Amino acid sequence: MSADLGSSPSAGPVPARRTVWGRELVAFCATALLVLLAVSAGTVWLSERIARANALEEAERTAQRLAQFLVEPGLAQAPTGAPGRFDELDRAAENRMSDGSVVRMVVWRATGEVVWATEPELVGRDLGPSDGVLAAIGGDTVAEVDERPETAADGEPQTLLEVYTPLTGPGEQLAFEAYFAYDGIARQAARLRGQIIPMAIGALVVLQLVQVPIATSLARRVRRQEAERTALVQRNVEVSDRERRAIAADVHDGPVQDLAGVSYALSALRGSLPEERQPTVDKLVGAIRHAVQSLRRLMVDIYPPDLSGPGLGVAISDSAEPLRAAGIEVLIDAAPLPETPPDVTAAIYRTAKEALANVAHHAQAKRTWITLEETVLRGSPAVRLEVADDGVGFPASTDRRAEGHLGLALLRDRVVGLGGTVTLGDRLGGGALLTAVLPLHHGQ
């Protein structure tokens, strides 16, 4: 494999990535507001349900009291068949209905005949037994909302709350029905909302007022830590850059120059040696020159050339020199690229270098194509690197980490870590095709 992709070449200062603490804080506040609205809607709905249930229960209790303490004694005291026998009961009922909470009262027989009602014209009429009447005759108290009461009079509300409750009459079991204005439920719901909503919503508002400053403080702390981390990374990169330059300079000014001098000296000495010793000198010179080339490639790995602007295409072309030395034709199509962040440029260079190393070591190819051009990734400007060959293609499994080969795995991790994509496939016409696409402005 080629040089380890874990070491990033230095190509200038590392740009500070835009922190997302602001967006996170906005998302936190937006979520809190949505929860507040959802709880408010739920509280309103629940208050309506509770108010309705309370209104029905209160109406049932009121109807039972009316039946027990008003209507039942009035029926017992009314002489059977006497004219105006319900006058006293009518007056008592009228006094009770004067506050408007009760709209009408009716006493039913099991057959559906009206025994007594606050409207005298209903007395004696047979309207048929309703389900509520039959339930009350059976001993149950039931309540229901009726939008079309069977005994409705002109000018009364169309929607009423009806309550049927058992009533013991003179010698028979009767059913007492009381009509209540339905708008009382709305009033009770309004009162209940006035009690529940301020308590529930107010508690949530106070909680959010406490949480927002805490979240803001945490976000500012994260921002400071992010700035410190970015500065630390920047310093580490600068230190690493200086160390790489120093090592490359030491290799260039030391072993490379010494070996080059030895090579020149041996070449000059060759003519003074016997002819049978000259092939040995030639081998030594070749070995020394090969060592010099290896050291120069090591210098490039330690401290790559300038990768900015057109330098990237030139550097990739230089990294393909071992393929040319091995007799593999290299065709490069490098289009002019816009200004690229240093880490993206470094990732492109390392990706191309690893791909070309794989071609040299495994592809058994005769020709290699390198394409470098501007493209679009997820709607944003990006750079596309394509390395293709006419060799044997990729193996069935490219994950060879268990064998100690990490080149492609590190290559993919590096590109994906910068928001890009890596695709390994077969080239049309035979061979392998590696495509890497990296966004120009990742993390923003």
Write a compact overview of the structure shown.
The chain has 444 residues and is an alpha+beta fold. Helices cover 53% and strands 17% of the residues. It has helices at residues 21-77, 87-96, 131-137, 183-270, 278-302, 311-319, 321-325, 342-363, 407-417; strands at 102-108, 114-117, 142-146, 160-169, 172-181, 329-334, 367-377, 380-389, 421-426, 432-439.
Structure description:
- The chain has 444 residues and is an alpha+beta fold.
- The chain has a domain at 306-444: Heat Shock Protein 90.
- 53% of the residues lie in helices and 17% in strands.
- The model is unreliable at 1-19 and 400-405 (pLDDT under 50).
- Its main location: membrane.
Low confidence ranges: 1-19, 400-405
Lateral strand order in the biggest sheet: 2-1-5-4-3
Shape: rod-shaped
Assigned CATH architecture of the domain at 306-444: 2-Layer Sandwich
Give the % helix: 40-55%
How confident is the prediction overall: mean pLDDT? 80
Strand content range = 15-25%
Q: Determine the N-to-C terminus distance.
A: 33 Å
CATH topology of the domain at 306-444: Heat Shock Protein 90
From the alpha carbons, calculate the radius of gyration and give it in angstroms: 47 Å
For the sheet with most strands, the description reads: 5 strands, antiparallel
- Main CATH class of the domain at 306-444: Alpha Beta
- Enumerate how many helices there are, as a single number: 9
Strand-and-helix sequence, N→C?
A: HHEEHEEEHHHHEHEEHEE
| Helix-strand category | alpha+beta
User: Could you give the count of β-strands?
Assistant: 10
CATH superfamily descriptor of the domain at 306-444: Histidine kinase-like ATPase, C-terminal domain
